[in-house]
Amino acid sequence: MLIEDEYVNQEILKMFLEDSYDLVVAGTGTEALNIIRSQYEMLSLILLDLNLPDLSGLDILRQVKADSRTARLPVIVATSDGDAEVECLTLGAIDFISKPYPRQEVVLARVLRTIELSEDRDTLSLTERDHLTGLYNKEFFNRYAAQLDIHHRDCPMDAIVLNVNQFHMINDRYGKVYGDEVLRLIAEKILELVEQSGGIAGRSEADNFWIYCPQCADYGATLEAVQGDLNGDGQSENRIRLRMGVYSNVDKELDIERRFDRAKLAADTVKGSVTRVIGRYDDSMHEAELLAEQLIEDFPAAIRERQFQVYYQPKFDVRSNEPILNSAEALVRWRHPTLGMLNPGVFISLFENNGLISTLDQYVWSEAAAQIRQWKDRFGVTLPVSVNVSRVDMLDPGLIEKLQEIVTRNGLTTRELLLEVTESAYTEDAEQIIETVTQLRKLGFRIEMDDFGSGYSSLNMLSSLPVDALKLDMQFVRNAFRERKDTRLLEVMILLAKSFELPTIAEGVETAEQMFTLKMMGCAIIQGYYFSRPLPAEEFEVFIAERKEIEAPAEAASSLTRKDNYTYNALHDSLTGLYNNSAFEILFHDADQEHIAVLIADIDDYPDLRKSRGRVYADSLVCRVAEVLRSNFRSVDHICRLKESTFVVIMTRITSAQKELVFSKIEHVTHILREGTDELLPITLSVGIAFSDREHPDGDIFQDADKALWRMREIRHSGYAVY
What pLDDT digit, counting tens, does each position of 480-518 carry? Predict the structure, then answer.
């Protein structure tokens, strides 16, 4: 582009250049800027006169270089003012042509050389920059970071990783165009930051940004500077939250990628956290890193020397009156020669990240299949065993053949080796995994969706997934029974599974209360320490022996830490089906003693009624009270029959602040009972109540509720009293 207002000079330069280049000519500064802004992608060079009628050439140069779209355009200044050269160079001019103009050959040579240099620079820039954000790509970032180390040997440096929380959800919900715009905005903020701090920035992949800069004093301020106004006024539903990982004062002996691996490790420690957004690499992470390196190095020998041992945890079907051994889960342990027995939490996630998990999984599958065969031969029973199939396994094109070979080698059917696939696997590479699972089910393998409830599946997705059972996430089950017990969502999930005709399996069940509550909700299979911890195969055989009514060796039984196997009959009242004294003791002991109410209810005049009308009539009264109590209290409340005419209700998740709820339930129950039936006279109750947060307790909550009941008996009047 030629910017020149004098006609003669325009004609001279046109004569010099028009045979070699397509020319765009402007005679004023305003005209020139309009053309540049509209045609900047087509321009290769600007030849600029400093003296124009409306704007100075210096003003045009400033505006061209200040605009990110046009800043790349090379500018040659044509001037007779030698003093202007320094200022023009400072503003970004590349070269000069003096006035009067030199020979044509000189002008052509300078124009050609400037264009070539600019194109080389643009080519290099495109090569070293991420095309979306304009930050350095990973390769060139590493090169420039190494140069920073050379030029700042004594300067402490930080490696910082920035990620967007749930970025894949932003893309899924709002589209890739919006996601790309978010990344560009973040990159702009980061670029502003590193220009001030003297560092460099790059985008390694997706939403991963790297910053290498002199050591920072306030990482919170650094994160806030990048977060900035990404969410506008903060009212938008698509709130964008960043997390940061910092490896401070890096060890410069490590290669660049290793430094940022440590920063990424720190960032992952706050992944999913609502309150923490900055993670720092520290000594504990360093020790974990060293342990990880050792375990990876020791893995081949561990497979070769069979250091991995498979333990088995029983799963009981609780749908009948008495729990029945249904199957087992294979769980791996590592008997390390120097580190001792290692639980899977130490190494499973490590092997999932580096791909070794497939080798370990196949080892476990083979061991479990061989054990099924051994038990089948020894006891004459088929006990299915479930094994974990990782997402990496599901993407293996040879998976089906490997599983078939293991089953065939051990003379098993495909229904004897159960396959647990995590819920999250169905949402990543979903089409391929669903296709693989569908093929496995056609061959007879049964599929259990593991970790159901960890938050990945939608209702629409669940209705179409090829699975045979849902295994509730262990942490989800445990959270439902914590101090502020709330099992409502758990009950909804079990009902949801029932609506799809899928049985539910609950793992991590540790107490009688948990087992009973899940059973009442309709959970089919229970697994956890309530029945047994994971056991070596030889100890597990006690359960198979019991199932076959074979007397187990006493020494094997003594090695178990299994809880007493309370049967249905031992824990339930035979007349009403309510919990009995034994169950009450367990449920009362396991209840949250700070958030309960205990109600003791007694049928008025029961001895006289039994004497005058007989045992059958008295039993009918008891069953009627049991039926009304059961239908009017919540599923999380425990209703027990302690003596002939005495009932106890343990109301959970409640305090005296909710006493009106308790009173209304008692009044509704007594109202129904007073109405009588065709076969029974009206029934009245006396009820004693005590709350966990009662004033001046005189004993435990049960004793104080009993004192309140005795007050009602003393006045010989039906109703209720509160301690």
Answer: 887 656 778 888 888 888 888 899 999 999 887 788 888
Picking from 236, 178, 182, 230, the residue whose alpha carbon sits closest to that of residue 207 is 182
- Cβ(620)–Cβ(683) below 8 Å: no
Element of type H or E holding 80 = none
Per-residue pLDDT band for 598 (boundaries 50, 70, 90) equals very high
Domain assignments of the chain as residue spans, ordered by start: 2-128, 138-281, 292-558, 572-722
More confident site: 676 or 405 = 405
Residues in the chain, how many?
Answer: 723
Q: Which fold would CATH assign to domain 138-281? A: Alpha-Beta Plaits (3.30.70)
What is the CATH class of 2-128?
alpha beta
Distances in Å between the Cα of 546 and the Cα atoms of 416, 542, 565 are 20, 6, 11
- The first and second tokens of residue 357, run together, are 């998990």
β-pairing verdict for 719-722 and 324-336: unpaired
Same fold flag, 138-281 and 572-722: yes
Q: What is the pTM of this model?
A: 0.56
Nearest alpha carbon to residue 33 among 60, 2, 57: 60
E strand intervals along 318-430:
324-336, 340-342, 385-389, 417-422
Distance CA 404, CA 421 (A): 17
CATH classification number, 292-558, choose in 3.20.20.450, 3.90.180.10, 3.40.1010.20, 3.40.50.620: 3.20.20.450
Q: What is the DSSP letter of 658?
A: G
What's the token pair of residue 155?
Answer: 């300067």
Task: Give the contacts of 301 (CB within 8 A, at least 6 positions apart).
Answer: 307
User: Can you list the alpha helix ranges (DSSP code H) found in 152-218?
Assistant: 167-174, 176-197
Token reading at 715: 């006045």
Give every CB contact of residue 646 below 8 A, 6+ residues apart in sequence.
Answer: 600, 601, 602
Question: H or E segment at 603?
Answer: strand 596-603
pLDDT tens string 129-185: 888 888 998 888 998 899 889 888 889 999 999 999 888 888 888 888 999 999 999
Contact 348, 390 (CB under 8 A): no
Q: State the pLDDT at residue 120.
A: 65
Is the separation of the CB atoms in 602 and 685 below 8 Å? yes
CB atoms closer than 10 angstroms to residue 479 = 16
Q: What span, in angstroms and rounded, lies between the C-alpha atoms of 481 and 511?
A: 10
Tell me how far apart the alpha carbons of residues 567 and 318 are, in angstroms, rounded to a whole number: 10
**In CATH, 572-722 is 3.30.70.270:** yes
